[in-house]
């Protein structure tokens, strides 16, 4: 049986548009936003990590390893990817790393398997999702051999975003069918949190 890939949930960031320090812990229909994501990923990934800007006890209830950013001052999701992939390399794990944000409560249950099925060649490019023609770089699958390029972008070039790096590497894009609720909907504002609640209520009626 093939080993599961690792996964990391991006749970750092400033959440300025939401107006809180920890957007991941905002309640959505009775449970923190990040709990919806963990519930959809936990059975498919091993280990499942949480990426944060620094060590924190905020997520102790989940019993997941925290991977703090290896660079000071929050610089964007690319630093979280770099830190998590470096963590896995240091641990000698090489089954790939699935990246997901903490604010995607409608994440498809079969996301990990679809990413794994796209390319089984020895080279293993980056695999990313697109939905309705919009690239979703934070829903993606990375490999240890991508680490040197990621490290250069983060440490030497000071980059913080993932999209530019992804498109500069060998990669494949999965065009995901649209749906309602949108499968890769991100909750970034109080209005979007209300919208997510309405969709969840509709799903359960």
Could you walk me through the main structural features you see in this protein, from its secondary elements to its overall organization?
This protein has 205 residues and is α/β, with parallel strands linked by helices. It has one domain (6-203): Spore Coat Polysaccharide Biosynthesis Protein SpsA, Chain A, CATH 3.90.550. It is 30% helix and 21% strand. The chain contains six helices and nine strands; from the N terminus they run βββαββαβαββααβα. The strands form two sheets. A seven-stranded mixed beta sheet has the order 5-4-1-6-8-7-9, sandwiched between helices. α2 crosses α4. It is globular.
Which short descriptors sum up this protein?
alpha/beta, two-stranded antiparallel sheet, Spore Coat Polysaccharide Biosynthesis Protein SpsA, Chain A, 7-stranded mixed beta sheet, single chain, 205 residues
Task: List the topology elements.
Layout: E1 6-10, E2 27-28, E3 31-32, H1 33-41, E4 48-52, E5 65-68, H2 77-90, E6 97-101, H3 111-118, E7 126-131, E8 134-142, H4 147-156, H5 163-168, E9 171-176, H6 190-203
Parallel strand pairs: 1-4, 1-6, 4-5, 7-9
Antiparallel strand pairs: 2-3, 6-8, 7-8
Helix pairs in contact: 2-4
